[in-house]
Amino acid sequence: MQWQHSATLPDNFITKPLRQLLMQDWLMPKHLVYSLKLGQRVLVNGAYLPVNFEVRAGDHILLTFLPTDFQTPFQNIAPDSAATVAAVYEDTNMLVVNKTPGSKTHANQPGEVGATLNHVAAYLLPKAQQPYMIHRLDQETSGALIVAKDPAVVPILVRLIKEKRIKRTYLTWVHGRLQSEHGTISIPIGRDPEDKRKRQIGGIHPQPATTHYRVIRRIADATLVAVQLQTGRTHQIRVHFSGLGHPIIGDPLYADDDRRQRLLLHSWRVVLPVPYAFETVRVEAPVPETFIEFEKHSKKS
């Protein structure tokens, strides 16, 4: 078993040492660069090249990774039905799926099924590939979820998210009419001392949290908002808007709504650099029918 990545350096590529391409441009961790160097598994134009040598526009790079390069090269994720998997973007190394509401991102117990990654495991099974988790979405949140298919892209995607170089935009309907067209919420979030499922403004062991938002439109007593996170705290969007007095519609923890109304929070758009490439893709997960139905119903009321 091995994983390969290849690329031809573009015409506008600035000549630099191979090490700089791998570590600074492609964000490879140092230990992977060392493994490739030790095994002479980094080829430039078909021949091994020491990483201190320069590469230039038009050069073809081929990297070969082995299971021994990784602490956990294989995933123990039980496959479930692939029927609910809707890939809104896919290449040889990763995919972005439109997560369904009510589905956990990952299973919590060995052998457990029903989570999104279980379904993706079934989807990838005919391709002899496995899913690798990059980030999570709350169980009731729908939309774009990035999943790796190759352990060599995992540390790169994780770093891109950590450094906010992957731009994720959420859509949400909140109660009430937000007055400002856009704004920033910078309020620490900690654990709720009375309910371990919840977080709250301040709370136990609060951590800094910053949320940026832009109003898209207002109807009756609700506002559609586009949201981007500067930090990634548990339930951050839900807690911040609840703290403003504008909880997300259908939120089972932070809004006093009819429990038949699903949480109207959707991971809508992802803009991400493609690992081991020189391109950026913009992916959108279609706005859920529940969002559209809520707006129609509100206008009729």
From TrEMBL:
Q: Which GO terms describe its biological process?
A: enzyme-directed rRNA pseudouridine synthesis
Q: Which Pfam families match?
A: PseudoU_synth_2 (PF00849)
Q: Catalyses which reaction?
A: a uridine in RNA = a pseudouridine in RNA
Where on the tree of life does the source sit, at the highest rank?
Answer: Bacteria
SUPFAM superfamilies assigned:
Pseudouridine synthase (SSF55120)
Q: Provide any one GO MF term from the record.
A: catalytic activity, acting on RNA
Q: Where is the Pseudouridine synthase RsuA/RluA-like domain?
A: 93-242
Q: Which family does it belong to?
A: Belongs to the pseudouridine synthase RluA family.
* Name of the protein in question: RNA pseudouridylate synthase
